[in-house]
Amino acid sequence: MATSFALYGLYVTMGSCNNTTLDNKNLSLKEVPSPGGALPYFGHLFKIPSSLPALKFDEWHRQYGPLIRVKMGVEQWIVIGERRIANDILKAKGAVTSGRPYHLFLSQYHTLQQRGPVFTQPDKRWKKNRTAAQTILGTKGVDQNMYIIESEAARITKMLLEGSANNGNINITKYMQLAPLNVILRTCFGKSVTSIDDPLFLAIVETIDATVKWGAPRQDMGSFLPAFSKIFELFMGTEEHMQHYTYEVRNPLFRRLIQEAVKNDTPCFAKVMHRLKEEDEFEEDDIIVFMSDMVNAGTDPTAVTLMWAFVILSHYPNVQKKICDEVDEFITMHNRLPHYSERENFPYLISVQKECMRYRSAKHLAIPQKATQDFEYQGYIISEGAVILPNTYTLCGSTEFYDSPEEFIPERYINDLSSFSESVNASIDVRDQYTFGWGRRMCPGVHLVDVEFFNIWVHIFAASIIEPKLDKDGKFKYVDLNRCNDLGILVAPENPYLRFVKRPDCLI
Ligand code: HEM
């Protein structure tokens, strides 16, 4: 079968030899360096592991340089392993690099044919969606919902302490999803879930997990090898699952949430979107995809980033002690917990947050962008349709930019109090965060994330310390920071079992 695939691949490649190619269109320009050993038609596909592909790209960056061209079947992937190049290509040349590549599930099913803010082309409809998202994610929108974020931070701290007290070791995955999900649910639908066993929580998490899984590039082999797409479908039947999930599971759930939100008395964003629908600005399908995007984008990246932070900190009790001291100093002085607006009192906590996000990034590769026309970069030609991927994993481990990047050293950020949104909008010389993407498609949720993290961290460290799970002999069993669970779009720690233990010296 492999031989037939290879022969057929060769036939298809030869058949396409007459097409205009990069080389003959732009003879004076060079091609971006590409690792050797690419097969006809299949390219580098068989060289890239289905799990944690960024690690392979990282290896190639060291051999072939920071800008590499990887052939994923018929797709050209331009992978960027240097922050200045990412900035030049995705920000400075954003007018021609802000497309999204076609992906069977994301483009056709999840977006109900190109709707919503995340996976659509940068056209008028995307702009309308992005503006709507900014309404709730911009500074004004987040400030209006500050009471929601603060109360969810208090709720999750209580749940983690109770969960640990009642069960000993807890898998923190669902707890970490619950807090950011509730912020989105209350903002968008005026409702919240009350526990990790709440049927609504479980139903929504099912849709989030499905998107993270089906949205992974490896789930769309048909786009890499279109000549075999029918064979893939015959053997794997994935499209049937995608269709069933979208129309029988995701859409009915979100339709119900929107209808209930429009009818209830609580102010929420679903009501605003419903009014816009009555003014013919949006259709019902637009609102379903918008809300589903808010729930997906607003929950799992935040949850996985928090998971990494807390499993890392379970290895560093001395770092936790210093955070607790900083929080206690504020409480002693003010007799209350701080608000986000008082974050400048927490230089150590902020530097630990930044170092956790660098040390173990939740997204190894940002959401792919696409070149919408041919363009030149430093003598290289990047062709229309090329998929552009900043390799966050490599950027965060750069030996050029960081001393001993493999070590966890919060002090490297100690003089850097910039908020996440200040950082991502700063010039490349001072930008210190890479996990939120680049250019026009940069994550619009950065400020919300910053406010959520600050509140969750101060609530947790005012009340508790984080310890590894206990084994059957009562000894600490640390989460292995080198073992990752590749979820598709995100990379999470494996078996994230921890214990949140009430601080005996807690001041609140
Ligand atoms: C730690 C948490 C988060 C991380 C690491 C993260 C990361 C990212 C990344 C890498 C992108 C793609 C950027 C690009 O294409 O260059 C993105 C896009 C996006 N994010 Fe986030 N994000 C986080 C939290 C949030 C939150 C809380 C929201 C709120 C709903 C959100 C909403 C969005 C939206 C709507 C987009 C699509 C933007 C577009 O395509 O125009 N994100 N995010």
Describe the fold and architecture.
With 508 residues, this protein is of the alpha+beta class. The protein has one domain (2-502): Orthogonal Bundle (Cytochrome p450). The protein is 52% helix and 10% strand. A hairpin with a 5-residue loop joins β9 (464-470) and β10 (476-477). α10 (173-189) runs antiparallel to α16 (284-313). The termini are far apart. Residues 117-118, 130, 133, 137, 293-294, 297-298, 301-302, 305, 362-363, 366-367, 369, 435-438, 441-445, 448-449 line the site of protoporphyrin IX containing FE.
What's the gist of this structure?
This protein has helices at residues 2-15, 22-25, 53-64, 83-92, 94-97, 104-110, 124-137, 139-144, 146-167, 173-189, 199-214, 221-224, 229-236, 238-263, 269-278, 284-313, 317-334, 347-359, 392-396, 420-425, 446-463, and strands at residues 30-31, 67-72, 75-80, 170-171, 369-370, 375-377, 380-382, 387-390, 464-470, 476-477, 484-486, 491-493, 497-502. It is α+β, with helices and mostly antiparallel strands and 508 residues long. The chain has one domain: Orthogonal Bundle (Cytochrome p450).
Which properties best describe this structure?
about 500 residues; alpha+beta; Cytochrome p450; four-stranded antiparallel beta sheet; 21 helices; 13 strands; about 10% strand; globular; disordered N terminus; binds protoporphyrin IX containing FE
